[in-house]
Diphosphomevalonate decarboxylase (Ananas comosus), 422 residues
Amino acid sequence: MTGESEKSWILMATARSPTNIAVIKYWGKRDEELILPVNDSISVTLDPDHLSATTTVAVSPSFEQDRMWLNGKEISLSGGRYQNCLREIRKRARDVEDEKKGIRIQKDDWNNLHVHIASYNNFPTAAGLASSAAGFACLVFALAKLMNVKEEYGELSSIARQGSGSACRSIYGGFVKWAMGNNPDGSDSIAIQLAEETHWNDLFIVIAVVSSKQKETSSTSGMRESVQTSALLKYRAETVVPSRVLKIEEAIRDHDFASFARITCADSNQFHAICLDTTPPIFYMNDTSHRIISLVERWNQSEGTLQVAYTFDAGPNAVMIAPNRQAAALLLQRLLFYFPPPQDTDLTSYILGDKSILQEAGLQSVEGIEALAPPPESKDKVPRKKFAGDISYFICTRIGSGPKLLADENQALIDPVNGLPK
Ligand SMILES: Nc1ncnc2c1ncn2[C@@H]1O[C@H](COP(=O)(O)OP(=O)(O)OP(=O)(O)O)[C@@H](O)[C@H]1O
Ligand SMILES: C[C@@](O)(CCOP(=O)(O)OP(=O)(O)O)CC(=O)O
């Protein structure tokens, strides 16, 4: 190992990785340590501009131990998941040379060098929006770049998987399948890209953030309890998911929105049915989530064809997928009719992400929302009650690309001089 003045150099890499939302859910492990699932799952990667983790990893001979800061606060790296990812990446580290900085690190040096990691999520952490997915994918991707790891993306996905199962799918953009695999060592439990984000460009996504508080039952412990107690989980994994996976892959390939939406809604509902079938039962959705499902179902039924799909992870937030911007605009009109912004909230802090959809929905102001007519399908069926304040905010987004290296050093989260978070 060499550097200009032995102790002073710092080498860094910064990456940004998206989160993803499963349309066929992963719920249940067959191996807790290696994080091997009981069924295949399929997800769409979300636009990193709106939902992503940014992570800087730095190495220096002056660092005395591995350290990490998440959203500005130091967190412990002693947990098995962080340790597994660090160990697997270090094993694959190779020689690194930065001619400009005069730094040369040899393969074996990596075992004696420590890293500093700083990460920031541009959306709520541990609120059912898959922060762990973006976070571990980003950590593995950034470390792989720093340590000049040459492995295929499939192998990187299997390392990210050991941080958090759903993270393996965030290694790719677009439509992604996590093949459960059969090997006891997990070597074939990897993510595969089904199609790039450009394949089905029209899809538009609206996320209703119902609560950004931390949830009571983590995905990890929730799925452990389901594996131990739910007979429905076993039936779903063995009988339902294999045929659903084939059908939704076909729907994605053929841009068949009706089939895609039907399977997505059914799979989300079955996942939450498993949570109810768990002893003691787990409730991730709340009254607001149920109201959103009813709103979408009523609309879909009145039109006779599926207008939008909904899916809920381990939390109350709704992720709705529309076939195009026009349908998304009609969806927003409906959502904002029932869930207007609380008083004194301006529209720009209530609708985040791609706000341009508001124009298409004819909603440029809070007055515009107040003037909205009730959706035609609501007539006489439900009381026209409104639920201002039940949704914290909406995120309007699209399907997005996979992890990227940020070459601009100004985007680094670690100070290049003292090696600490900026
Ligand atoms: N940017 C990040 N980098 C590294 N680790 C992260 C990052 N963000 C979150 N994590 C890890 O993920 C944990 C949160 O995971 P958890 O599964 O509880 O919530 P979630 O991923 O937001 O929700 P869910 O997976 O149920 O949709 C954090 O406590 C932290 O350990
Ligand atoms: C409901 C889900 O979001 C569950 C995600 O679980 P995690 O990947 O967070 O669980 P661990 O592997 O224990 O870290 C469904 C999904 O993303 O497929």
